[in-house]
Amino acid sequence: MNSYRCMALAVAPAALFLAGCSSEAQPKPAQAPAPTVEAITTALSDADIYSDYPAQTYARNMVDVRGRVEGYIDKWLFRPGQEVQAGQPLYILDLRPFQAQVEQAQGNLKQSEADLEFARHQVSLLQAEANLAAAQANLIKAQQDYERLKPLVESDAAAKQDLDAATAALSAAQASVRANQANVEQTKLSTQTQIQSTEGKVNAQRGALDTARLNLQYGTIVAPISGLIGDTLVPVGGLVTPNASQPLTTIVPLDPIWVRFQVSEAQYLAMKGGPANGAPPLELILADNSRFASTGKIANTLNQVDPRTGTLEVQAEFPNPQHRLLPGQFARVRYVVEHRKGVILIPQRAVQQSQNLQIVYTLDPSNKVESRPVRTGPRVGESWLIEQGLNPGDRVIVEGLLSVRPGLVVNPVPFKEPPPAAGRARTE
User: Fold this and answer.
1) Nearest to 378 by CA among 8, 81, 47
2) Does one domain contain both 205 and 276?
C-alpha cells in the first residue's frame, strides 16, 4: 500500500505538468469576421404623395353591328379582333334581289315619265280648242248669213223661209260654240289633273328607285365606327333581319379608352380642390405594375353619391393611340395629392415592425448597430417617407437585417437597389 501511494504521488505531478503543456500548446479559436450589410445614407429630397384607386377600363361608345335589310350573308370580310375603320365593308349579302328591285323601279319610273310627257303635250286640249275654233267660225258665218238675209226679207227681196233657215243655223252655231267652250274647260281641267297625277306617280317612282338603290347599298354592311371588332355571331349563309335581337358583331372604340373608379365623398371633394382647384392629371398603373404611357383626365362624374356605399363613380379618359388597353382591364388610377419638399425617404424593406413600433437599424461612426424607432408617413413608390426618427446623414441598414443585432459591429457597403422586374416600373 505504501508503495502504491508513492507511485501515485510521483505520477500526479507529472500528469499535471503534461496537462499544462497540452493546454499551452492548443490554439485559441479564431474570432468570426464582421457580417457585411448594405446601407444607405439618408438625405433630404422632394416627393410626390399619391392617392390610388382601383379602376377598370371600359368602352363608352360600343356599337352593335346590325343589318338594315333582310338577306342572306354571301361574304364575310373581317377577322375577329381586327382593327376596322368607319365605312369599311364587313358583310356582303346576296345582292341579286336588290339589283332586281332597282331595275324594276327604273322601268316603272321611265313609264311614268313617258306618261307625264304625253300629258304635258295636252293633245286632248288642243283638239277641243280646235273644235271650239271651228264652231266659232261657223257662228260667224251663220251670223253673217242672218244679217244679210234679214234686210232682204224685210224688203221682200228674199223669201222668209231663207231667213228662218239662217236664224236656225245661227242658233245652232251659238249652241255649238257654247258646247265647245265647255268642252275646252273640261279638257283643260282633265289635262291638268292628269299632269298632276302623273307627276305624283313619277315622284313616287323616283322614291321607289331611291329606296331600291338604298337597299342595294345596305346589302353591303359597313362598320359604323372605327375600333376593334369582335367575332361574328351570324356565319356565311345565315339570315340577316333588321329586327333581329342578336347583332351581327360588335365594335368597340379604343382611342380614347375610358376608365371608371369609385371615390368617397371626402376624396371627391379633395380631388376637386387639388392643383389650381381643378381636376388633377391622372396616371394609370396596369395589372403588371407598369405605368401607362399617357396621362388621363376626369371627364365625368355621376350625379349622386351611392347611399349604400357612400362612394361616387368617376369616369376618366386616357389617350390610347397604340390600342394597348382593352375594355374590361383592371388597373389603378393615381394622382398627386401633395408635393412634399425636404423629406427623408428610405426603402420599405429597411423598416422593421416590432409589435406596435416601427424600427430601423442604423450605424454609428464605429459601424456598431443601433436600433432606432421611427414614424413613417405615406408610401412613395417602394419607399417610406419618414416623419420622425431619422436625420439627414444617418446610415440605415437595408440588406442583411437578419444577421444584425444592436451592439454588433458590421461591415457596411453601399446599398444597390435591384433593377425592376420585367413588366414592372417604379411609380414614384
Assistant:
1) 47
2) no
Burial 52-68 (b: 16+ CB within 10 A, else e): ebebebbbeeebebbbe
C-alpha span between 425 and 209 (Å, rounded): 62
* 173, 261: one domain: no
* Residue corresponding to grid cell 300629258: 119
Domain CATH number, residue 186: 1.10.287.620
Provide the residue type at 172 as one letter: A
232 & 124 share domain: no
- Does residue 377 sit within a domain? yes
Partners of 83 in the beta sheet?
Answer: 228
**What CATH number does the domain containing 395 carry?**
2.40.420.20
Q: What share of the chain is helix, strand, coil (3-state, %, to 5)?
A: 35, 30, 30
Q: Note the pLDDT tens digit of each residue in 354-405.
A: 788 899 999 999 999 999 999 998 888 788 899 999 999 999 999 988 888 9
With respect to residue 419, please indicate whether it lies within any of the assigned structural domains: no
Diameter over CA atoms, the chain: 226
Q: What is the pLDDT of residues 403-414, one digit of tens each?
A: 889 999 999 999
pLDDT tens for 275-308 read 445 567 888 999 988 889 888 988 888 888 888 8
| Residue-number span of the structural domain to which 182 is assigned | 96-218
| Chain-centre distance for alpha carbon 229 | 12
Provide the number of structural domains found in the chain. Answer: 4
- Tell me how far apart the alpha carbons of residues 35 and 411 are, in angstroms, rounded to a whole number: 6
**Residues 302-352: tens digit of each pLDDT:** 888 888 888 899 899 999 888 888 889 999 998 888 888 889 999 999 999
Element (H, E) at 10: helix 2-25
101 in the same domain as 210: yes
C-alpha cell at 341: 419638399
Q: Is the pLDDT of residue 128 over 80?
A: no
The residues, any chain, with a CB within 8 Å of residue 134's CB and separated by 6 or more, are: 180
Let me know if 314 is exposed, middle or buried by CB neighbors in 10 A (0-12, 13-18, 19+).
buried
**211 belongs to a structural domain:** yes
Cβ atoms within 10 Å of 259's Cβ, excluding its own: 26
Give CA 102 to chain center in angstroms: 37
Average pLDDT on 11-16 reads 44
Choose the final residue of a domain: 218, 235, 262: 218
Task: Classify each residue of 401-414 as buried b or exposed e, where b means 16 or more C-beta atoms within 10 Å of its C-beta.
Answer: beebeeeeebebee
